[in-house]
Amino acid sequence: MPLRPHLLIFFLILLFTSSCGPELAVQPAEQPTPTPAPTRTPYNPEDLKTVERRDLLDTVSGRASIVPKVTEELFFKRDGRIGAVDVAAGDEVKQGQVLARLEQTDLLYQIELARIDVELAELREREAREKRVPAVEQAIVAKEVERTKLAFERLETERQSLEITAPYAGRVSELDLKPGQQITAYDPVLTIVGTEELIIVAEFQGPEAARITVGQELTLEDFFDTNIKFKGVIAGLTSTSATTRVVEPEAGAPPLKLGDSFKVTAVLGQASDVLVIPTATVKSIGDRRYVLLVDNGELRRVFVETGIESEGLAEIRSGLEEGQKVSAR
């Protein structure tokens, strides 16, 4: 059966478009050129530290000084103007010695008059006894002596309030006074340090001070003369600083000299033949401690139990073995 004209035209168009048009088949994409995976050393060999075995001492060091047991700031108990300054900074003074005084010209005049009144009253009393006057008259003159003495003592007390005296033998360490200067009552104007009673005060810096307690034994050694070395015990705290402690020297210790200083060492703990690594290699997660251990060429986190620490080393009680390598990074 012959094809109809319109069907023939359709097949011719289809044949023509399939032979002349672009190829529609999907071609597979090219695979990317693979790149080598980056490689790096898991640790720096120069950062490795070896687990070693040695003796370890947990010590705290500080500085001890010989200082006066007593130091006191002195002041006037009244306002006034400085009349005289009898000492200078650095002067050695005796107990009771007058150090400075306020102006008191009128008061001194009154005190002298009061002293005369006392002498006159005592003369009258003696005369009354010698003449054997009636008891009533003797009682009257006796009371007059008592009255004049009380008046004199009151003026003397007032005079003392215008003076500063040394409460004990010592040395004037600070002085801020000059004649004619106006001062206010109870404002410190000079400082005196005792020289007869000396003590040893040891100072420890930072948080280490909190580890030093009463009863702790110490070793004190002269900074320059190694032959001067003795023991001591922490006897108490000082009132001036939380980092200082009072040291009681052992019997036979060298005589104390004001201003001397010593290196002081306290042994808080010791461990013999223990595993140690540098403290810098020990890291923390919360309250747990760990190190980076070299294992088959790689670093592996290993938790450890530490003990005492001293001189940049930490005791390892468990988790490591002698000869192993840890990273400090």
Polypeptide structure, described:
It is a single chain. The model is unreliable at 22-26 (pLDDT under 50). The protein folds into three domains: 42-69 and 197-329, Beta Barrel (Elongation Factor Tu (Ef-tu), domain 3), CATH 2.40.30.170; 70-102 and 162-196, RNA polymerase II/Efflux pump adaptor protein, barrel-sandwich hybrid domain (OB fold (Dihydrolipoamide Acetyltransferase, E2P)), CATH 2.40.50; 104-161. It has helices at residues 5-20, 105-130, 135-160; strands at 48-50, 52-68, 71-74, 80-85, 92-93, 98-102, 163-165, 170-175, 182-183, 190-194, 198-203, 217-222, 229-237, 244-249, 261-278, 283-285, 288-295, 298-310, 313-318, 325-327. Helix 2 packs antiparallel against helix 3. The chain has 329 residues and is of the alpha+beta class. A hairpin with a 2-residue loop joins strand 17 and strand 18 (298-310). It contains three helices and 20 strands. Helices cover 21% and strands 40% of the residues. The strands form three sheets. Strands 2-11-14-13-12-15 form a six-stranded antiparallel β-barrel. Strands 3-10-8-5 form a four-stranded antiparallel beta sheet, with no helix packed on it. The protein is rod-shaped, with a radius of gyration of 47 Å. The longest helix is centred in the middle third of the chain and has 26 residues, at 105-130.
